[in-house]
Each structure stands twice: as structure tokens, then as C-alpha cells.
Amino acid sequence: MYAAVLTNVAQSIVLTPAEEEAFTTCLVPKHVARLDAILPAGRPARYLAFVVQGCVRTYTTDAKGKEHVLALAPEGWWCGNFTSLVPGARELLALQALEDTTVLLLRLDHLEQLCVQMPKFERFFRLLFQNGYLLAQRRLEARATYTAAVRYARFCRQYPQLHQRVALKHIASFLGITPEFLSMLRTKQL
Amino acid sequence: MYAAVLTNVAQSIVLTPAEEEAFTTCLVPKHVARLDAILPAGRPARYLAFVVQGCVRTYTTDAKGKEHVLALAPEGWWCGNFTSLVPGARELLALQALEDTTVLLLRLDHLEQLCVQMPKFERFFRLLFQNGYLLAQRRLEARATYTAAVRYARFCRQYPQLHQRVALKHIASFLGITPEFLSMLRTKQL
DNA sequence: CGTCTATTTGAATGTACTCAAAAGCGGTGG
DNA sequence: CCACCGCTTTTGAGTACATTCAAATAGACG
């Protein structure tokens, strides 16, 4: 159950067995059926989630009721409203399982505790957020540089597993285009 | 010279006078004339910069030679290639002064040292990157939700100082549109 | 088998871009 | 002081990329 998340953490910091123990006791496993919400929507997120098995989408709903996919997280990825750790940020993000999914939930106050008790975790989450920042910045840049057709091609190359598993409409939303247009691209490009 | 940056840091962590001293000795002041580069371009960034006075733009140059503005940083903001701290990331970002500008440079290896010696700094930079991530995510969302006209209006409201000080073409690039189109928006909206 | 949702297809439209050229603006040197 | 130069902004015509709306088709699930 915890092997994957410990491997993930080990890419950034080295933990003693005791520290691993302290970490995993903060993690709450949860199984969520396909298309169900990981967390109750409509309130500021109080958890981060590590995807052990399955796939999760993070999205917002705008004033017109349209959903915008901000992230797609298969096994081995973290997701959740990182921003609710920023004072003043009140984004309401929803997390939905796109397949039958197992996640490990980490309460944000437990995260803070881990960071205070073991500064290593401060480092781990710094690197996690840096990486998230990098990915978001690259997507902004890609959006300014390439047409939707190119962005889709790059997406397929970069996440070969995902574009098979995830519904077209979610990929379209993630790329910032309409499902109709992506459908058209898909057929004309083959 | 250091008052502004200490105020900035104090928003996230509390430093003793000794720690303030250790921090500021890592910072190298640099004055850069309008339109000059803050750092030599074309190589992976080895510094973060805190803007004491003036204004800095962070940008990339794509395969076709087009520049894309990723960030605009007036007084009190950090800028630089945060991503060069992420293993494997080899983004080449350039920093340019848009006005006569004073920055405080922090070498990335000094940053690492500060974090190791004083875990407080690990926390400070975690919060800094979290905030950067939040802003990048909001821009992605805005790009998907609003037309260029609305994004420009929001930009003007959010950064009233900037849209007076910064050349139209840089604002256009930051918003992800052409200068011609922004010029048109500007006149038709008044 | 019927219902619900996702995907595909197509026509009309809109948003934003490209290219070209003119106008404005600031600095520099004659 | 004025004329010229280089760069930014404006303007406009034509076009491309992507959206909207509507309807048909395909798939998934009970």
C-alpha cells in the first residue's frame, strides 16, 4: 500500500525507517469508485492525495457552469488543492476519480506538522511545488507557442498511457479546447 | 537596501537578527540599466532575484525566435528561473530590466545552503513556490475561461501600476495575445 | 432493450493572428 | 532647434484557428 508513495518521497529526500513510519501513519487510504468525488466538493480542500492506483482529475467550475480540468493524475502522482496552503487563496477545486481509484489522503494540518517535526518534509514539499510550478509554466508557454493540434500531439507523446485511458472531453479541457474540436483533430490527423 | 527583502521574508517566517545577517550576506545587490539583461542569457539560471526597485520581465524565446513573457516583476517580487532547481529541467529563461532596476541576487547554491543550515528557509521557499504555482494555475484557468478582452481588464485591475509602466507588447505577450490585437482592444474598450 | 452520456459531423460564427503600412514617440547628432 | 533614425503603437484587410449550436451516431450500463 505505502510502497509507491515511499518510492515517490525517496526521489527527493532520504527517510529513516522511523521517519517513514511517522509519515505513513499520517496517510489515510481511501478507495473511490469510477466517477465519484475523492473529496466533498464546494469547500476549501483540506487534503493532498497521492494516487496509488487509478486516475484522478482536478477541475474547477466557472461562473457559466463550465468545468476546466487543471490536472490529470495517474498512479504515482500527487494531486489536490496545493493552493489552499497559500494564505488568502480560496480556490474551490474538485477531485474526481476517472477510474476505480485508490488514494492516500494527507490532511493539510498533518502536512504542516510533518514539516515542523521533520524539516526534510519541508524540502520534499518545496520540490513538489517547484515541479508543479514548472509544469504549469510549461503549459502556459505551450499554449502561447503552439496550435491545439501540436499541443495534442505533444500531450500524446508525453503521456502515452493517459490519452488512452481518459475521456476525450477531459483531455480537451486539459488542453484548453472544446471536445468537438479535439474530435476533429483526432480524425484528421490519423 | 535590505529592508524590502526582509519585509518580504517576514511575511512567511520569523528571523532572528543573526539569521537576517546570514541571509543578507548571501544577497548581492546589482544595478541594471533599462533594457539590459539582469543575467547573461543562454545558460541555465544560477540565481534568483528580488526586485528592490524597477521592473523585470522573465521570458523565453521559442524555435521561431518569438519571445514569450512568463512573468512581470515590479518592486517587492522575486523572479528568476525557479525551475532550474528541479532536477532535469533545463529551461533557458532570460531576465531583462524594463526600467533602471536594482535587484538582489541569490545564488542557487547559496539558497540550498541557507535551506540546509536554517530549515526556516526551506519553509520560506516552499511558500514562495506554492504561491508561484497558484499564480501560474490561475493564469491557465483564466486563459481557458475568459476572452483576451476580459483577461486584459482583469490584468489592469489586478496590476494597476504595471499596465502604466510596461510596454504594451510585453503585456500582450504576458496575456498570450499579439500586440496588434491588444492595441485594438485598448482603443475599442475605452 | 432502452436510456444516458460521450463522440462525431457539419454549418455558421467569432476570436485572434498575419502581414503590411502608417503614425507616433524618444533620442541623437548635425 | 530640427531632422532623422529606430522602435513601438495603431490601423486595416484578409485569413486561420477554434467555438457554438444542432443533430446524428456510437458506446456503456443497468
Query: Class of the largest domain in chain A in CATH?
Result: Mainly Beta
Low-confidence spans of chain A: none
Annotated CATH homologous superfamily of the largest domain in chain A = Jelly Rolls
| Tally of DSSP helical segments of chain A | 8
CATH architecture of the largest domain in chain A: Sandwich
**Structural class, from secondary structure content of chain A?**
alpha+beta
Biggest beta sheet summary of chain A = 4 strands, antiparallel
Could you tell me the strand content of chain A as a percent range?
15-25%
Largest interface: A-B, 35 and 35 residues
Biggest sheet of chain A: strands side by side, in what order? 1-7-2-5
The secondary-structure element order of chain A is: HHEEEEEEEHHHHHH
Helicity of chain A, as a percent range: 40-55%
Distance separating the two termini of chain A: 40 Å
Overall 3D form of chain A: globular
Instruction: Please tell me the total number of domains of chain A.
Output: 2
| Oligomeric grouping of the chains | homodimer
- DSSP strand count of chain A: 7
CA-atom Rg of chain A in angstroms: 17 Å
> What is the fold named in CATH at topology level of the largest domain in chain A?
Jelly Rolls
The chain-level mean pLDDT of chain A equals 91
Description:
The structure is a homodimer of 190-residue chains. Chain A is of the alpha+beta class and 190 residues long. Chain A has eight helices and seven strands, in the order ααβββββββαααααα. In chain A, α7 crosses α8. The longest helix of chain A is centred in the C-terminal third of the chain and has 27 residues. At the A-B interface, α4 of A face α4 of B. Chain A binds a DNA duplex (30 and 30 nucleotides) through α8.
